[in-house]
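[SOLVED] Need 3D model of a two-part complex

Original post:
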Amino acid sequence: MADDDLVLEMRGIRKEFPGVVANDEVSFEVRRGEVHALLGENGAGKSTLMNILYGLYRPDGGEIRLNGKPVSFSSAREAIHAGIGMVHQHFMLIPVMTVAENVVLGTEPVREGVLLDERVAARRVADMAKTFNFAVDPDALVGDISVGQQQRVEIMKALYRNADVLILDEPTAVLTPQEASDLFEILRTLQREGMSIIFISHKLNEVLEIADRITVLRRGKTIETVPRQGATEASLARAMVGRDVLLRVEKQPAGAGDVLLTVRDLHVRDDRGIEKVRGVSFEVRAGEIVGIAGVDGNGQSELIDAITGLQKIESGTVTIAGRELSHASARAALDAGIGHIPEDRQRRGLVLEFSIAENIALHDYAKPPTARSGWLFPGRMVQRARTLIKEFDVRGGGPLTRAGGLSGGNQQKLVAAREIDRDPKVLIAAQPTRGLDVGAIEYLHRRLVAERDEGRAILLVSLELEEILSLSDRILVVFEGKVVGEHTGRVSEETIGLEMLGGGEKAVA
Amino acid sequence: MTDPGPSPAPEQAAETGTLAARIALKQRAGGIVVPIVTVVFAFLMSFIIVAATQHSVHTALVVFKEIFEGSGLNWLAHPTTNLFNISAYNLSQTLLQTTPLILTGLAVAFAFRCGMFNIGGNGQYLVGLIVANWLGVDLAGLNPFLHILLCISAGTAAAAAYAGIAGVLKATVGAHEVISTIMLNWIAYWTASWLFGAGGALQNSQSPTNPVSNQVSPGARLPDFWGNQGFQGLHVGLFIALAAVVVFWILLNRTTLGYEVRAVGFNPDAAAYGGINVKKNFIRAMAISGAFAGLAGTLDMLGGAQNYQVGQLDIPFIQVGFIGIAVALLGRNTAVGTLLGALLFGGLLYGSFHGLGSSSVIDPTLASNLTYIIQGLVVLFVGADVFILYVWNSRKKVRRGPPGAAPDRAEAAT
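Solution:
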């Protein structure tokens, strides 16, 4: 294909964040009228690359050419003006305004200089909806329409601003399967109109369904760009995950004891009412690590929240050390002996404005010795913090340092210190090493194995397959809210990778 | 949860959120410097306004001297207990104004610490005032100590329950407390008008045509400790307000209740994860907040006011809840800060009203409006301390180079 078919070229893009190289000499090109998938694991640098293209980040190096001309955007406004549209994973819509108002926002047709010409706006949006078969009522309030329709409003926003390159950041993450296939229909229509689409995803089946070409990123580097023809789920998974040597953790075989956590036929809906956990059953014994592998958004978060009492259970049971806690509060779950390293330490695991000492007291602030009959003893809080800071080697401050001032790794150590020090029977570790450097990862891995050997039941949930493989004594693979595979002993990354993407049902039966 | 790719800038993400959370954040960020700069800016700006409108820097200087002397703060230079000394008298009146402001300031601050914005100080103040008047009139003849205690506790409890309505609405149906407390303000206002208005249940039986309440019985009045009743002396309510400052601090920093309040205020998600019942805390913190404001109402009723008139006399009182917001903001939602903020606003209120009203420095009508201008500017600059903080921080940034290296100072929460 001739070079003048390229609508977008990104060459040698480099972007560093403190401690992380998010994009390392990444090259990426898009032809006119193609759907080009950008594939990679979480943290592979897909979103960073697209945020650079959209003017949200400044690259540290490299060149971007749009229609053959070098460009450099310092804001999204400039990128939009140059014809780039982006639909973010989290929509940027105003729920109390109508579809038409949202679409024209920022570029409103005006009458007499200042007044919004709502009729013109509604008509233009209606025309557009009809042309592309969007099936969205321009006069409906955005808050009243479905998520799939809201996504179409985002796409219309981009079209209204004359985008000819459209970036979709994991567009199906929030959609039901039906909504996803509707979206693909729309994308094909847009493609026929000559639009170029960049489709960010880590779901192999989708990519193979919609994309013309696929570029795989891994750890900030371009691994390969391949046409869809000839690509298979297995070949893409290999490129995505890599064949690097696994970071093996030294550990003895598990000496599993009593069952401490039992989950039976659990069903959980998320806040939007979508059933995310659909009949999950498993048990975890004392002295074993059970790893839950799966692509982000397949019900892992809801599963953990249900077990820890943070999310309501639709049906099914959760039993901890013989006590049924199916509809218990978070307090009751904690008191029954659950320790929980949450997946988002900043949003949930820590009160960043609190001191280290106050954060260590987060679960047991009302219990002796920290408190008695409602009275708090900050001195004892500080004392306990001092001990744990030493034991867990939390660096960057003393007991009175604000937790928000610590580095990510030390914040995570702080959370782990608190959870382990409670002496839980069941320890749930969700993404325990996300965003940490190698040293901290190693520490936490060894600590988890040590806690297993102490006789705790450990449930490890991670999006990092390597982590699951190296730590777990038993692996459960979840896909769309169901356990689709269970493995003990040696198992290849490819097998699990395929199951994670829904490709392994036949094998499991 | 979905994760939008790598999150290399972790510090930025968690710190956004609700208005209350943002205000709480900025409250902690600038230490003691920002409030002082804020006040200096406000006074500087009002000085410029006076100087410009009067075409005289000298007049402006005199105006501010009059405000200062009107507030009685010059008493500090020549302390005397003799209330016939004008500066002593002025100071006693300033402290009289300060008393309810301390409490409404604490009310706003307490709700803020739980991540809520209580704009309902006025309504809660009125509820306390109504109940104190009702019991203060009806139970005449009771042992004075018991009578006062009963009036204060009943008024405070009623205001707590009244504010609790906003907390319950927030916890159950998610109604925003800003909206519900504003509506509760009006309900309290019109209820007071109806009760004290002509023909109302608590209306003064001696003068049936006046929209004014009965006087509370002498036994229920808070004794003056400085000055005398006839001259509107300073009553012991000031000490109750000061005690409330101590209670506020202990409650927040030395009880598990306070720990819960602060955890919820900073990060409700983390609080829930920690096993704290967030909804219960919304209700409880709102009730405690209302109790502070209600206490202000009871003290004003049993102390200075003794009766309540719909129409005119209520005007200065009805501001009390709103000024409390400025007091709490300026005081950065801390106990001591709120006390100092209340003193500033108390002095400004009485000093500008009295000092300028009785002097001939400028036209009296202009003088009374100038009071509001200065107050408005202080409130404006208190609200602008985000900006001041920004200027302050960028100044540091220029000097030190790029951010990131600066370690966080451990800031003991007071």
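Edit: The two ends of chain B are 36 Å apart (CA to CA).
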